[in-house]
Amino acid sequence: MVRVSDATSTFVQESQEDIQKLNNALLDLEDDPGSSDAIETVFRVAHNLKGNFGVMGYTTASNLAHAIEDLLDCIRDGELEVTPERMDLIFNGVDHLAQMVEEISDTGETNTDPEETIEAIRASIEGGESAPGETAGTTDESTGDDAVDTDRDVPLEDLADDVDIEALESDTAVYRAALELDDSGSPQVDAMFVIDAAGDEYELLRTVPTNETIEAGEFDAVFDAYVTATGDDADNEAVEAFFDDNRYVEGASVTDVTGDIIDAVTADADDSDDADAESDDSAGSSSNVTHSSKEVESIRVDVEQVDQLYNQVEEMVTSRIKLRKIIEDNELVEAEDELEEHGKITASLQDTVLEIRLVPLKKIVGNFPRVVRDISRDQGKEIDFQMEGVDIEMDRSILNELGDPLMHLIRNAVDHGIESPEERERKGKSREGTIKLIGERERDRVSVTVKDDGGGLDVEKIRSKAVEKGVMAEEEVKLLDDSEVYDLIFHPGFSTTDEVTEVSGRGVGMDVVNQVVRGVDGSINVESEPDEGTEITLMLPVSVAIVRVLFVTVGDETYGVPIKNIDEISEFEDVDIESVEGRQTVTHDGDVYPLLSLGDRLDVPDTEPDEDDMVVRIKDSVRQVCLRCSDVMGQEEVVIKPFEGVLSGAPGISGASVLGEGEVVMILDVDTL
Fold it and tell me: Which residue from 423, 476, 480, 617 has the least number of CB within 10 angstroms?
């Protein structure tokens, strides 16, 4: 990566924030086209982006932002309506801007060519500048009053997926009928009559906009119908005459697009990622803006915090000088007092640094509304996505780890959780599903919940899949209660989805979510009810893992157990030991706790049970279990570094800590031991 200047870095950060604001404001506008606040916010942010690109000398990006601004200006002035197609066009332009910002961040330059998108936006503006009640392009002198606008994009890639290419190369043709309806006051009704007639006469491939959009009346009484004709029926004039004769059609223009589709299929693969294809399938693309989480690369620090940090560093320097002088004079009593003072300064400095590292949750979830919009639109689902409590703050490093797991949970909720509108209606639900992301803080822990009101988890299907995949035997699965069955979804490679989609269902993901959350000292809870929905809660620490641990020995090895997980420490001879089905247990206050030997569980060599062993009882809220170790060696605050690579997610180990003497000590994860 080329190192960019400080000015460019600031520009990149501000532009990324503006693009996120623009995406969310566009979603508000799409949801409520009549909202003056939404259109003003959209216009203001787009204008700001255009100016910033221009000032920094990125002319191409500035031109694209200018085109978006002009289109928004026409919408604001009432010259153009908010339609799904125009919103797709604007979102496509915003995605290009985001990609160009990424390129600037990486190399200081832009490589993306947005010319086709700019032309499409300009065409949308020019095609819509007509008097009320009159469709632009309908009065072309060369074709008469019945001519219609044919300047709309043709979804070639989608059409290629709908037809048999070999048939196209023999006796089948695809025709595009650009249609304008009579002004009857009920365009959606008239359009459905035309669509039904076309389906009876020909094979109807698709309409643009979609049938759902037309049925909802969210179009300007003009649409395209794509049909196929075979053999003698494959005649351009005959197809045009068919649509002209329809009583609901004011004007029709039919063109043969067979050759264009064949060219699109056989074109060089390098041309497949052009702007039109991106516009046609924005939910299935790999846009960095809408479909991947991004690390928090910078934080904003309050001036008071900087001053506080400076003062604490000054105090530390002064304390260091005092300590050196005391040691030189061999004044041990004074040294102890100064060391205590030095410790207070260090603790205060630690608190300040940890506070500075705190970043709001919205930094990594701000683009989630756009993700939900794109995927739900692609799948024909209606979803109300809500976010609450996203202003809560967490350590930057934890947030960076949390981005991908949360993205996966959101994708799953859209793809698997929420049913289609038709299925929801059959169940007596509203057509629109709801997904919520909720952040809450309680002392030093944060919970982030993703909940939906969809179909819920199918317990029996999970059981059968677990048996099918060899995760558990059928007899074992039958003994699990529902909450234990839900935990099976975190097994590596486990998926109940039979079909692999662009969004999910690849058998990877939930196991990674589990590993990442465990790796930052967090936990996951799953709750679900059939046809009522699923709720997945991540419990996470606010700050990085600086924790107090109890050091225990197992043979010649030393391990750390977080103090917050421990309820009681006892000598082995003082606890009530029993044997249940060949396994040792500890009975305490009427409750039975399995006794785990750390020597056995951790494969520590030369560790034989001894009457002098110690027993550490873990808190019931963490895990109802006791740990048997050789000895207990005291406690200390340590910094836990989670493992990376092949050691990441190792059961029973949450990370390692380096002690003052340079000794590396493994920190136990009692929940997965």
Answer: 476
